[in-house]
UniProtKB/TrEMBL annotation:
Organism: Vibrio scophthalmi
Family classification: Belongs to the NapF family.
Lineage: Bacteria, Pseudomonadati, Pseudomonadota, Gammaproteobacteria, Vibrionales
KW Cytoplasm (keyword) present: yes
Organism domain of life: Bacteria
Subunit description: Interacts with the cytoplasmic NapA precursor.
Binding site for [4Fe-4S] cluster 3: 139, 142, 145, 149
Protein's UniProt name: Ferredoxin-type protein NapF
InterPro entries linked to this entry: 4Fe4S_Fe-S-bd, 4Fe4S_Fe_S_CS, Fe-S_Ferredoxin, NapF
GO molecular function: 4 iron, 4 sulfur cluster binding; metal ion binding
NCBIfam families for the chain: napF
UniProt cofactor(s): [4Fe-4S] cluster
Pfam family, any one: Fer4_7
Gene Ontology, cellular component aspect: cytoplasm
PROSITE patterns: 4FE4S_FER_1, 4FE4S_FER_2
Amino acid sequence: MVDLSRRRFFTRNVVADTSVRLPWLTAPERFTDLCSQCGECVKACETQIIIKGDGGFPRVDFSIDECTFCYQCVQSCPETLFEPAQSEPWQAVAEISSQCLAKQNVECRACSDICEPMAIRFNYAVGQVAQPSINHEQCSGCGACVAVCPTSSINVSNVGA
């Protein structure tokens, strides 16, 4: 698997890393200083979306599955990196790019079918297929919509990243 984040260094348009951090982190900006890279969170993740990324640090990969907010990654971690389960797991929301089939006038609603909080809705428009819209207030950032998208046009990123 090629890590494209390293290749970005050599491109003219440097793209910021918008990958979603692990849920419930107390100090995301100090994560690489505090994480011991033990891999316990990777083993504990029930949907296996936490993988070892650059330098062995865990990261979330929504192309595999969704986050169920089970809290097992936090419970397995020997470090004190995380907030209590009662707090919000992260400030992350989904975004749909122009590669979306519906935006190409092809009927597809896979993302809204899988969206449990019903944050993705399709609005009817004259002369084209229904167009997707995301209610960011309802979006939990779980990433369920990412893995089911046939064109990989949905990305979940941290709010303000």
